[in-house]
Design goal:
The chain is 54% helix and 9% strand. It is built from 23 helices and 14 strands. It has a five-stranded mixed beta sheet with strand order 8-11-12-13-14, sandwiched between helices. Strands 5-7-6 form a three-stranded antiparallel beta sheet. Strands 1-4 form a two-stranded parallel sheet. The longest helix has 28 residues. The model has no long low-confidence stretch (mean pLDDT 91).
Length: 558
Amino acid sequence: MAQINSQLLFLTTSPRTPEKMIPEIKLLIKHFKGEEWNSETQRKYMEVLRDEDFFNGQGAKDPAFSARDRINRAPKSLGFVKLSPRIELTPAGYCLINSQRTDEIFLRQLLKFQIPSPFHKPTDKAANFCIKPYLEIIRLIRNLGTLKFDELQIFGMQLTNYRNFDTIVNKIKKFREKKAKNEGNYKVFKKLYLHSELNKIYRDRINSGNIKTRESSDVSKGKFIVTQENNTRDYADACIRYLRATELVNISHYGKSLSIVQDRIDEVDYILQTVDRKPKMFNNESEYMDYLGSINTPTLLTDNKELITRKIRELFPNTTLSPDANTESLKQLFSNLLNRQKTDIITKQIAEIKSFSKYNEIQKTFDDITNNTLYDAPLMMEWNTWRAMTMLDGGSIKANLNFDDYGAPLSTASGNMSDIVCDYGDYLVCVEVTLSSGQRQYETEGEPVTRHMGKLKTASGKPCYCLFIAPKINEACISHFYILHHLNLSLYGGKSTIIPLPLSVFRKMIEDSYKADYIPDPSHILSLFEASNNYANSANNEVEWYEKILNKASHWLE
C-alpha cells in the first residue's frame, strides 16, 4: 500500500506515456504469470525487460525497485494486473493487450482510479483526499472550455477533494483575470503565482521546518518550493498524457491547452452526469482489484444501444445499420468507422504534404521545436520529420507514431521499431529522431538505432539505410556510426550505413527539395548513402568522413 503524504493531487507517472505499459505487461505475463511478485521475480523481470527492443532504460542500480516502478504504478494502480497472491492479468488487462483500440479501455480505468483506496491511503499529514482525479479534471476542462497546462499545474493539482471543485474553478478564473492585466513577463508572473499558492498550501509544514526533500541535503525553503513546483509539473504532464490516451481530450501543442474533442462532447457529458463523483469504499485490496479489473464499469455512452446508434448516424450518416445489430456489433462497427476515418484523413494529409503546400508550416514547426515552444517537442519532432520525409523525395513513408481519430499525433513510436520507415521499392530507409544531446544521446540512441535497422533489414530482405536526426550530433555517435560502416556484424544484418545529420542540415535538404525545378526521386537519397559508404572507406578517420557527408547532404541535389 502506498502512503500519500502530499498536500497536492497524486497521479501515476510511470510509465510516462500510457501506451508504453502494454508491451511491458505482455512481457510480465509471458514470463512470470502465476509466480509471486517478490524481489526475486522483480529482479528477473528487469533482466528480461532490459533485453527487449521497446525498453530504453537500464534498471541496473536497483533492478527490483525499477521493476516495481514499471508494474506497481500504472499497471497495478489502473487495474490491469493483479500481483497478489500471484501475478495474473485482470479482465481489463487482457482487453488492453489484445485490443486494436485501447482508448475506451484506458477511459474506463482512469474513471475508476480514486484516492483514497486500498492501494493509496493518505496519511494524517496529507490533504483531505476524496476524489476520482481524472473524472474531475475532465469535468474541469468541460466546465472551462479550455484548460491551460499552467492552470492544470497551479490549480488542477490542488483538486484533492471533489467538493472543492467550484473553489478551484474560481481560482482559475481569478488567475485569468490577473494574467490579462499583467503587463510584465508572463513566465515571471506565472512562477510567482505558483510559488505563492505553494506557500499557502504548505504553510504549516514550512512553519514547522519539516521541509526536507528526498535525495537532497538542502533543507532550505527555496529548495522545498522548487521541488513541489517540479512535482506539480510532472503530475500535470502525466495527467495530460493519460487523458490523451482516452482520445476524449485534445491538446494544443502551441497554446499548451486542453479541450474536449468536439465530436465526443456528448460522451463526456454522459460520463459527467452518470459516473458517481464520490470514491467507493472497499474492505480490502482484493475487493478493490475486482472493481478495478472489471471491463464493464463504469457505463459509457457507447454501452447503450440507442445512444451509440444515434452517435453512428450523426457522425457517419451514410452508414447502413441493421435493425438486428446488438450493442457489441454496433461498437465494433463504430470502431471500424473511426479507424477508416483516420486512414482517410491521413491519406489526404499525405497528398497535401507531397504537393509542398505544407513546406512553410513544416519549417516553422522545426523552428518551434528548436525554440522549445511546443508542449510535447519529442512527439512533434517525430511527427514533423515524418511530414518532411513525405515531402522530400517520394516513396511510401510510414510513421510508427500513434495518431488519434482525426490524424493528429497522439504518442511516439514504441521502442521496438524505427520512428519512420521509408519504402523506396528497391531499398528501405529508416529514420530515427531525438532531441537528446551530449553523452545521453549516445547512451540511449546509439545501439537501438543500429538494432532497429538490422531488424528491418532482416524482415524485409532488402538493402536498408538509416538517417539519424537530432538538433546536434554527439561526437560519440559520429564515431559509433562511422565504425559500423566497416563492421560486418550478423546481429545487425552486416555492415550498417547510418548517417547522423544535424537538424539544420536536414532542413537544408528539405529546402533544396522545395526549391528544385523538378521532383526528386529515390535515386537522390540513395546517392547520399552510397557516398557515405565511399567516404567511410576512403576517409582517414570519423571527422573527415563526417565533414564530407555533411557537405554532400548540404548539396544532395547538385
